Amino acid sequence: MQTKSPVEVLQHRLDSLPETGTNGFVRLSTPCQVENLLGWLNIQSMYPRLYWQSRDAGAVEYAALGVVNAFDSLAALEADLAALAAVGGEQPDFFGGMAFDPSTPGWEHFPACHFLLPRIELTCHQGGATLSLNLCFDDRCPKDEIAQAHACLDALVAEQPLPRLKPHVYQREDRPSQQEWAAWVWQVTNPDHLAHTPKVVLSRETCLTTPKTSNPWALLSRWQSGAADCFHFGVQFSPHEAFIGCPPERLYKREGRHLITEALAGTTRRGRDAQQDQVLATELLADKKNTLENQCVYQQILTQLEPLSSQVQMGEAHIMKLRSLQHIRRLIHAELHSDVSDQQLLSVLPPTPAVGGVPRESALAFTRQHERHQRGWYSGVFGRISHASSDLAVTIRCAHIDSETIRLYAGAGIVAGSQPDEEWRELDTKIADIMSLLGMG
Fold first, then answer.
1. CA 314 to CA 301: how far, in whole Å?
2. Where, by residue number, does Mg(2+) bind (predicted)?
């Protein structure tokens, strides 16, 4: 007797659902076998496509297709989460992100805020892989919902190996230029400016142009293999544009009422060997400029969390080591008040002082006035939200890719003592990993 495929199992279970009487969220799941989630995602014809994996050891790997519900506001998302929780039963995960500065023009096909419940989820975890079909029975016609779910299952195809990364010749343009950058840094570090704005985070867009860019999922796969201690994400809302990244910084992780966040700021390079690496780490922790940069971040986070929490605790400064960089990090734990929602957290915490500056409004006023490139979802938010738990990253170390252009982004916190040439070199170090994958390292 021939065993049914995972898709056939889900189709059979879908046919068994009653067309009336079902209410709320329904997830149909079955075990499956998959070698590479990105290879599976890349070959599908459905959009949007999303990929997410937290940086925690053993974290679930998610690949998602299509859409059941989508929300372009935190209030609408929170209302849907509350409505589904009131019905009870299994609760869904929503995936998506937010722009760095919703008040400014962003990327054309990336709303200021967008979270969605995907139609299809493929998850990989320590126990194996699971293929899931999501349905929502609310005010929509149940017959139509089942028909749309069938169509999505029918469109699924078997995974294929990712294409190899091919070398391309790129034309590079930095925005701002190094000369403009130096002028900005001198303005920010002027004592008169520091008196009211002790930290501004300036960013640079490195635009790489070529007749045909690399496959975004193949690029992400190679990138993540050298970024084990980072988050990994990717999203395609349409065939010709993608946003991918391997950010090291957590916005926050919430389990029930317990929240973990971090102050990640202050940077140096990795050493040639273990001894030099340790010397550089020790110098970083002792450096006044980098310590000040980190202090600006954690003080603002503590100020933001205190009204929302019954208890807030901050850990000691320590070094977070990445492939090319070392950062100063302090972990912050908070017990949230019972009525605090993800909507409130996402209305208060981003943009973090690590990417937005201190105080926020005067720092943002400087970047709005001077930066000509659009940050869009760079230094914004991406991740997973559910009723029980949420996990979100700050979208740094990322690439915005279309058919002819790869845009890489990097930023640096400018405080008293910042030197233009040193900060410019830091920007190059922050994009070094992906530049090497593109053959430009």
1. 10
2. 293, 426
pLDDT of residue 441: 64
The average confidence (pLDDT) of the chain is 94
The values of phi and psi at residue 367, to 5°, are: -65, -35
User: Residues with Cβ < 8 Å from 353, sequence gap 6 or more?
Assistant: 199, 201, 263, 265, 296, 297, 300, 301, 360
Q: Is 381 left (phi over 0), alpha (psi -120 to 50) or beta?
A: beta
The span from the CA of 270 to the CA of 321, in Å, is 8
Burial of 40 (0-12, 13-18, 19+ CB in 10 A): buried
pTM over the 0.70 mark:
yes
Q: Which residue type does 297 have?
A: V
pLDDT tens-digit map of 326-343: 999 999 999 999 999 999
61, 159, 199, 262: the active-site residue: 199
**Which one is catalytic: 145, 249, 262, 371?**
249
Domain boundaries, the chain: 6-154, 171-215+249-437
Annotated binding site for Mg(2+): 293, 426
394 within 8 A of 249, measured Cβ to Cβ: yes
Task: Examine the residue annotation and report whether 199 is marked as an active-site residue of this protein.
Answer: yes
Active site (annotated) includes residue 255 = no
Peptide bond into 48 cis (omega under 30): yes
d(CA 435, CA 441): 5
CB-CB contact of 220 with 162 (8 Å):
no
Averaged over 137-149, what is the pLDDT? Answer: 88
CA dihedral 325, 175, 418, 289 (to 10 degrees): -40
Is it true that the peptide bond before 359 is cis, omega within 30 degrees of 0? yes
Tell me which residue has tokens 């995974």: 159
CATH code of the domain made up of 171-215+249-437: 3.60.120.10
Distance of alpha carbon 327 from the chain centroid: 18
Q: Would the pLDDT of 344 be above 70?
A: yes
The β-bridge partners of 322 are none
Is there a contact between 319 and 282 (Cβ–Cβ < 8 Å)? no
Q: Tokens in use for 163?
A: 């294409």
Report CA 73 to chain centroid distance, whole Å.
Answer: 17
Specify binding-site residues. Answer: 293, 426
